[in-house]
Design a protein that fits this description.
This protein has four domains: about 10-185, Leucine-rich repeat, LRR (right-handed beta-alpha superhelix), CATH 3.80.10; about 235-275, no CATH class; about 285-370 and about 530-620, no CATH class; about 375-505, no CATH class. It has helices at about 35-50, 65-70, 215-220, 220-230, 260-270, 355, 380-385, 390-395, 400-410, 415-440, 450-460, 460-470, 490-495, 505-520, 565-575, 610-620, and strands at about 10, 20-25, 60-65, 80-85, 105, 125-130, 150-155, 160-165, 175-180, 185, 200-205, 235-240, 245-250, 255-260, 285-295, 300-310, 325-335, 340-345, 370-375, 500-505, 535-545, 545-555, 580-585, 600-605. With about 625 residues, it is α/β, with parallel strands linked by helices.
Length: about 625
């Protein structure tokens, strides 16, 4: 589909400002957690009431579309442009009553099978159909004699679609642009020869087609112009290890990838690198946290929205959304990096900490880490290890490790753990070999574990030879994903214990030390971005001055997991005074960093209480 331009997207009728051009997600969305099924249905009903009358909207973009959505649009008879992004829609008949519609984009049309309703759109000049996998009969398009532009294509990653015939093109004498991707069942592409007026014609080649692509390009200036245009287009492709290649089209319209020289690669990386100007807020920030509530039949949902007021930054995010009930607000001020106190208010009278704190369905529970140690075990003999290695040699990555796992699973727990100990000790020996291979340029730094796994899988003799002479190891001897040999025992034990286990082996300390070294380097092929965790919201009930308070803070939990993250939260809670009586509970996901106004916390409880009674019982007020 073509670019969306600067369309403003909204998800609730209250957000509409009378624009002629707008994008709408009728099922809800925007900032904050994903809406529930009940909330999506409720949101759609409100849009249904909105569209029941004619509106000033002339150019409309829609997200996910169903037949029900299209029926709701029928009163919008003044639409001139409609863009559908995707959806399981099948019936285009609701568009018949839109006589002014001159541009139509049918994106993600995977269920579409009938184009006949479009024949009633006398003003249509621009039509795009994308990914219509079930559609084969395009003959109805022959009645759209006003068409100036027709694009029929697959999605970027989707399979090529099919069509019965191109005979309809003989009626489209006004076409100025055609882009056609589907295979044609008859192999007859001769109807294209009538498009002598078209200035741009792009066709995907098909084996056995007549006329051939060469004959079509010779006969049609529009194909020649489009082919030249394609060959002039080039897109750089950046890999995580620093390589750059250039993607382009050849004269047959096929995507090709070519290498670039070092100087051009350096220039492309410089253009590709993001600006050094930080987008994430740092230093002192001020603003308000706004508490809102929405409800379904069986659930009450309280959301906490951060509205940053200083520093003043351009912010297109509307928080809170206009379709929610605001309960109260809390002023905050503190470091954007955290810890930042964003809510602190006394609980309603008569509430106990445990009763108040129970029932939130949207919280993160730290996993209980289970570990098994192998370091006290003696290694297996080379002959014992060789019983397992043949199945690893035939695996091509973790998805094909099943035979190795099943073979090892036939042995006792002690054997499995000793196998892990044996390959770990070999890996410790081979770590300096892998480092030397990196220094020699035989492998890249990210192939460290793969190279070690390859040598272990090759057998004891290969390990001894590599340790004695690292330079004897050749690239052809190393295979990707062979590091699975280091992890297969862990997979076996996890399956047996029916829980996620970590095996602690001698190789762990090597990997830990290597990780510390990598974080201290700043070479081109090391990505030293901050840990993805960043700021995480946390909530607790604390005692302040003899009274229970609900408290929410933002805490930086970068690099922390499990109980260590909870310990950081407890320390942050204590920093603002009082003693924790219940909790803390952590948000299911992190904010990463504070970039502006955003959603910070959600409480989702199963409750059939009337909403005012629920608020009186659960909503703390500053």
């Amino acid at each position: 589909m073509s670019s969306a331009g600067n369309v403003r997207w909204i998800s609730h009728p209250d957000q509409y400002r009378g624009e002629a051009t707008v994008g709408i997600d009728v099922w809800g969305g925007g900032p904050g957690p994903e809406p529930t099924a009940a909330q999506r249905r409720q949101n759609f009903q409100q849009w249904k009431a909105f569209f029941a009358q004619r509106t000033p909207i002339r150019q409309l973009s829609l997200g996910r579309v169903t037949d029900e959505v299209l029926r709701v649009l029928q009163p919008q008879t003044d639409l001139t442009a409609l863009r559908i992004w995707y959806g399981r829609y099948t019936d285009l008949s609701p568009l018949i009553g839109m006589p002014a519609l001159n541009r139509l984009e049918l994106g993600g049309a995977t269920q579409l099978i009938d184009l006949r309703p479009l024949t009633r759109l006398a003003a249509l000049v621009d039509l795009e159909i994308e990914n219509a996998r079930r559609l084969r009969d395009y003959s109805a398009l022959g009645d759209l004699t006003t068409l100036r532009r027709l694009v029929v294509q697959r999605s970027f990653t989707g399979p090529r679609t099919d069509a019965d015939s191109l005979d309809f093109l003989s009626h489209l004498t006004q076409l100025e642009e055609l882009r056609w991707d589907p295979r044609v069942a008859t192999l007859d592409y001769s109807p294209l020869l009538g498009l002598t007026r078209a200035t741009r014609i792009g066709v995907t080649a098909m084996k056995g087609m007549t006329p051939s692509m060469a004959d079509l390009e010779w006969a049609l200036p529009g194909m020649q112009a489009y082919a030249r245009e394609l060959t002039d287009q080039r897109w750089p492709v950046f890999s995580s290890d620093g390589d750059v290649q250039m993607m382009s089209y050849d004269l047959q319209g096929r995507l090709t990838v070519s290498d670039v020289n070092e100087e051009e690669a350096a220039e492309l990386w410089e253009e590709h690198e993001p600006s050094d100007e930080p987008l994430e807020l740092t230093g002192l920030v001020e603003g308000r946290t706004i508490r809102t509530i929405t409800q379904t039949v069986r659930t009450k949902i309280e959301d906490f929205w951060l509205k940053v007021e200083a520093p003043v930054i351009p912010d297109e995010v509307e928080v809170p959304p206009s379709n929610v009930r605001v309960l109260d607000s809390f002023s905050f001020a503190g470091p954007a990096e955290g810890p930042l106190l964003i809510w602190d208010a006394p609980l309603p009278d008569g509430t106990t900490a445990d009763d108040y704190f129970e029932g939130n369905l949207d919280v993160w529970t730290p996993p209980r880490e289970a570990r098994l140690f192998t370091t006290h075990l003696s290694p297996l003999t080379a002959a014992e290890v060789e019983l397992i290695l043949p199945t690893v040699r035939t695996a091509r990555g973790w998805r094909q490790i099943g035979r190795s796992r099943d073979r090892l699973d036939a042995e006792s727990d002690e054997f499995v753990l000793r196998f892990a100990q044996t390959v770990a000790l070999q890996a410790v020996e081979l770590a300096p070999v892998a480092d030397q291979l990196i220094a020699l340029g035989t492998i890249r730094s990210w192939e460290f574990s793969d190279s070690i796994g390859s040598l272990i899988t090759a057998g004891e003799e290969a390990v001894r030879a590599a340790v004695a002479d690292p330079q004897s190891v050749k690239r052809k001897d190393l295979h990707p994903s062979r590091d699975v040999v280091l992890r297969v025992a862990e997979a076996v034990m996890s399956r047996r214990r029916r829980t996620e286990l970590t095996l602690v082996t001698p190789f762990d300390e090597v990997l830990a030390g290597r990780g510390r070294e990598l974080t201290e380097q700043s070479t081109d092929d090391i990505d030293d971005d901050e840990d993805e965790a960043g700021l995480r919201s946390a909530r607790a009930v604390v005692t302040v001055g003899g009274r229970l308070h609900e408290r929410i803070v933002l805490v930086d939990t970068s690099g922390l997991a499990g109980e260590r993250a909870c310990d950081a939260v407890r320390a942050a809670m204590a920093r603002f005074g009082g003693a924790i009586e219940a909790g803390p509970e952590l948000a299911p996901s992190s904010l990463g960093g504070l970039y502006g106004s955003t959603h910070a916390w959600r409480i989702r409880r199963r409750s059939a209480l009337p909403v005012d009674e629920y608020i009186a019982r659960y909503a703390s007020r500053p």
